[in-house]
Amino acid sequence: xxxxxxxxxxxxxxxxxxxxxxxxxxxxxxxxxxxxxxxxxxxxxxxxxxxxxxxxxxxxxxxxxxxxxxxxxxxxxxxxxxxxxxxxxxxxxxxxxxxxxxxxxxx
Amino acid sequence: xxxxxxxxxxxxxxxxxxxxxxxxxxxxxxxxxxxxxxxxxxxxxxxxxxxxxxxxxxxxxxxxxxxxxxxxxxxxxxxxxxxxxxxxxxxxxxxxxxxxxxxxxxxxxxxxxxxxxxxxxxxxxxxxxxxxxxxxxxxxxxxxxxxxxxxxxxxxxxxxxxxxxxxxxxxxxxxxxxxxxxxxxxxxxxxxxxxxxxxxxxxxxxxxxxxxxxxxxx
Lengths: 107, 218
Description:
The structure holds 2 protein chains of 2 kinds.
Chain A: H1 3-6, H2 10-18, E1 23-24, H3 25-35, H4 47-56, E2 60-67, E3 70-77, H5 79-103
Antiparallel strand pairs in A: 1-3, 2-3
Helix pairs in contact in A: 2-3, 2-4
Chain B: H1 3-14, H2 19-42, H3 47-58, H4 61-101, H5 113-140, H6 147-175, H7 184-211
Transmembrane segments (chain B): 81-102, 114-141, 153-176, 182-203
Protein name (chain B): Permease prefix domain 1-containing protein
Pfam family, one (chain B): HAAS
């Protein structure tokens, strides 16, 4: 699955990854690859502007913190981000349901 | 030059905007590249190959730079819109206070033009503040409206608004210069503060237009 398949869903994926706890940029990239079983192969650089966009929307909060002895920018899902994630999840379930019904064939 | 530094160099050359935010973004990307290199080294790759792999997986630096630039521009626009609200509010209060506290004898007979010019200043201030508020809201709902539109709206609104306010204010002072000797320094000082803040707003507005120019979309 390449970057063009993920386009439009990246924000939701990032929010979902941060649901399990605060992570820094590369930690988020690793979590995306781990949770997708290595199927998500997006350019790692695309994550950084997306994180800034989500931060501007107040869905995540970024702070500089020392992690493993190194200063890193760590992101946390905000309460508004949790709501947005829930909204995107229900939208996704509805979308896949409709597409699945059509693609699945039948009458 | 290492493979990693070439990505950072390209970002460094491309990005324009608030110095601290820009440095912040570059530092985050540098950390990410170092983390990726460390991970590949830990997986057994030689450092030079690990660095090269980290850069290859980063993607097209020009594309990433354009996306980061959109965020830098939006950030500058957000801050400018907030400053506009503070400065316009403070100047309105300042001049209301001066007009209210002035002794009745402080002003030359204003004639019919002063109330008209005063309305022009008030209306221009309100419209400019309104555009600033719209830009603020558009920039806050990051994913729904291209942020460069909002920053351009803000830039043009400030230039037009401050221009109208400046012309009307000068006209007011020409036709209604204070006569009371004790009151003149107050008006001169307030005018000086207003000019400095007005010029500052216009400089930020021009920067907004430059950052969000037609060559930048997003």
